[in-house]
Amino acid sequence: MIKVGDKLPGGTLMEYSEVEGNGCSIGPNAVDIEKALAGKTVAIFAVPGAFTPTCSAKHVPGYVEKAAEFKAAGVDEIWCLAVNDAFVMGAWARDQKTGDKVRMLADGSAVFAQALGLTLDLQARGMGVRSARYSMLVKDGVVKTLNVEAAGKFEVSDADTMLGQAKAAA
Question: Is residue 7 part of a domain?
């Protein structure tokens, strides 16, 4: 399992864009993890799945609501990761009104979650292999803080905990 002080593994996540932008076409766009993290401080949180109850009611809204406070604490971007495809993450972004506050990134085949050693086996519940629920503060690709939830819990990966850690690291 990834730990504080480790460099995040390289790879590609996918992001759905509804409008053309700086280097982004409409539709799914590849996000090179190493390039996207270079020179930045990023608060990353991962959830077992888009549109799931805790994720939609608590996890994402907390980060959206506190986005300005994260910026003030020196966080350049907030990323939400889930083992869903980019189209689902795009629809969830619309539903959650993430706008430019939280980047909703797809780890469609759980490749990144597996590389981190942070997977959750939900095959018995018909959901396959998913990401564990966690949050981490990453500076220039290196993990500065890591908060991994116990299965079924939402206690340490919330926006308030991560915001406190971001302020302490600033």
Answer: no
- The single residue of 13, 43, 46, 55 carrying the catalytic annotation is 55
Q: What is the CATH number of the domain that holds 16?
A: 3.40.30.10
Q: Name the CA dihedral angle for 107, 109, 114, 118, rounded to a multiple of 10 degrees.
A: 60
Domain presence at residue 4: no
Number of structural domains in the chain: 1
Q: Which domain holds residue 77?
A: 12-169
Tens-digit pLDDT profile for residues 27-66: 799 999 999 999 999 999 999 989 988 878 889 999 999 9
- 55 counts as catalytic: yes
Answer yes or no: are the C-beta atoms of 92 and 104 closer than 8 Å: yes
| Helix (H) or strand (E) segment spanning residue 40 | none
- The DSSP secondary structure of 32-95, one letter per residue, reads EHHHHHTT-EEEEEEES-TT-HHIIIIIHHHHHHTHHHHHHTT--EEEEEESS-HHHHHHHHHH
Helix (H) or strand (E) holding 53: helix 53-54
List the chain residues with pLDDT less than 50: none
Identify the residue whose tokens are 């790879």. 11
